[in-house]
Amino acid sequence: MFRRLLIVAGLLMLGATVVVAQSCPDTINARQGLMKKSGAAAKTAVAIVKGQAPFDLAKANEILATFANDAGKMSTLFPDCSKTGADSTAAPAIWDKRTDFDATVAKFNADVKAAQQNTKDLAAFKAGFATIAQDCTSCHQRFRVKKS
After folding, report:
1. Phi and psi at residue 85, in whole multiples of 5°?
2. What are phi and psi of 8, to 5 degrees?
3. pTM of the full predicted structure?
4. Cα–Cα distance, 18 to 26 (Å, whole number)
5. Domain boundaries along the sequence of the chain
6. Quick one: residue 87, left, alpha or beta (phi over 0 = left, psi -120 to 50 = alpha)?
7. Crossing angle (nearest 10°) for helices 57-74 and 2-21
8. Is 29 strand, coil or helix?
9. According to the CATH classification, is domain 2-143 in 3.40.630.30?
10. Would you give per-residue pLDDT tens digits along the chain (148 residues)?
């Protein structure tokens, strides 16, 4: 068990190093890909919450794992050089209010971890996802430029 944790930690550090080493256009593309992946997971979660798709604990855990992965990478994907370019919708507030942005990402990360720990059934998944969805909405309202 401990060996697996060390391997996972090593892979996470390697991933962070790779992100830092990428060029800014690559970083923008990576964060846009991350957001699309999160959006797809959220769409599946919404279908489950609305009863349009059956609740499956393994699927719920997969959705939450996607959010956890994204939360762990999020703050590394907004270096100063990525303020513009590649059709980015990142708002200047990310860099102007970096402490607020980092706190928002930290809250998202904590809420995802709580949902992962608490999700045992549909009711717990709904509660956890409701909080996560609020985090996403709040962040997008404050730190994303709306496309016209």
Report:
1. 110, 160
2. -60, -45
3. 0.80
4. 11
5. 2-143
6. left
7. 50
8. helix
9. no
10. 556 655 656 656 655 444 444 578 888 899 899 999 999 999 999 999 999 999 999 999 999 999 999 999 998 999 988 887 768 889 999 999 999 999 999 999 999 999 999 999 999 999 999 999 999 999 999 999 887 6
